[in-house]
Design brief:
This protein has 353 residues and is α+β, with helices and mostly antiparallel strands. Helix content is 34%, strand content 9%.
Amino acid sequence: MYKQRIFAAMSATAMAGALTFALPMSSASAEACAAAWNSGAVYTSGASVSHNGRNYSALWWTQGEAPGSAAVWSDKGGCTGGSTSPTCNHPNWAAGTWYPAGSIVRFTDGRYYRAEHENPGYDPTISTWFWEPYTCGGTTPTDPPDPSGFLVSQAQFNQMFPSRNGFYTYSGLTAALSAYPGFTKTGSDTVRKREAAAFLANVSHETGGLVHIVEQNTANYSHYCDAGQPFGCPAGQSAYYGRGPMQLSWNYNYKAAGDALGLDLLRNPSLVQNDASVAWKTGLWYWNTQSGPGTMTPHNAMVNGPGFGETIRSINGRIECNGGNPAQVQSRINTYQRFVQILGTTPGDNLSC
């Protein structure tokens, strides 16, 4: 508005002079490029950087927000010379360091992680950080092979769960796989992919797409203590509500899962909502060892032929199967069909229960 008022007050002669003066400037060569933008660096108001052949000036404090796609940068026009590709110099992660949202760090596993939210130095593998490839120094890092050999890549996992809670980390899942080495390692490549898709489809249904860590209906919490069990409910009457990818619930299930995994989940059930690897292990415990209301474990249903429908029966058959809730069954089937497509295989037969 200030520039408009000054311009409007100028005489026609002055305007013509101003326009005549401006023309040579438009033909001048582009400015030299400022130092290349670095996603790991902190910039304050007025800082100059270059990115993709253009110069930018920071409007205020920023870190990790790329010029050209964020409103915190003022575009100063094209530039020539210099380097517009940042070097790979993101800092090593340090526990206890405060990281703003968007920070990128190099973790001890050699990967780079981006903070989804500000945090006081949480471990990237169990909190709201996400591994992400980025271009720097002219190279694009690739995801190193996961030592677990899990046949679902991190990219496929992210595609399956685009809105997942940061608690449900891919690394937490792969770290849990060693507890049940037969999972997705039995049978042909098709069978193994189907089992991975079936497991992930069911946990997606149980958690709203890996969004919910704990059961949302708090009114049910006090119902999951079976006082008739000899071990009782040492963590409290309302401590055994649904948690984790399979929404583990009831004191006897926490006791059994803890015994199998070498953890005292009966006295410390909150581990399932605070440790991503433990949460995933409880889901795998149920999948590989429990028949629930069905006649076989979900693992056996996928590797021995009965198919996806029997996994539903083993997880929630009393409520959903035999016409109990066809909409819920179809929701699980739809997710399973989408996941097998992502993994490049077919769903097989017997999808419903």
